[in-house]
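re: ur question from earlier - yeah i can do the single chain one, its not a big deal. heres the input i used so u can compare w yours
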Amino acid sequence: MTPPPASSPDRRPRTGLDHRIETATGCSIETLCRHLDDALLDAPHTALANAHRDLVRAERDVTFHRARLAHLASGEFPVDQALFVRIERTVDQLAHAIDARDTQLVKTAAALEPIEAAAPPRAPRHVPAKDVAALLAIAQGAKLHENLITHRLAVATPSRTRISYAHLQHLEASGLVDRDTSRLLRAGAGQPVILTDAGRAVLAAPRPAGPPGITPPPRPAAFAAPAHVRR
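and the output i got, formated as tokens:
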């Protein structure tokens, strides 16, 4: 059996805590890791960087076993008892990998909390009006879907605002939204898209009034993150 393609070792997967870590430390994950390797961090930041490194390894294990399961179910192999044995074994390995990832997520969050508590508050950055409108729509609930016919990706929201995949990637790169990639991207289910702490801070910040005669869209009443992000 041909194994699924392995991720490049230089490509570090994003974790559910990356945005919080970058906000609290004031630097990127890549910079934090370089400082760890160069022994430039104090004790709390060293503990955080080491915990995050273990979290990345655990996230890679989840990704590997999930890709392996998708490979087994791809239709490439004959449906026989041997295939069922492989699938059951892979499902069991994936479950253990998820448990290990979730345990490490809790440990990393615990290492992050004292740094967050000591970090000075940051002023929300300026965000273009187009991005603010997208964040307002996403705050009401949003999912990334794939069109069954065209295979194009787009974010759908309850307000019927559609956000292109390119715009979603821009918001993700800016650290304003996050996507639940633990769910397989299928047209029927989709992947939930939620605001990060930085995205909620942008919406909570005062914004200048628009031109006369234009009423800005209402803000959602709350910006609470789903449970899988608050772990």
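Residues 1-10, 211-217, 219-231 have pLDDT under 50 and may be disordered. not sure if urs matches, ping me
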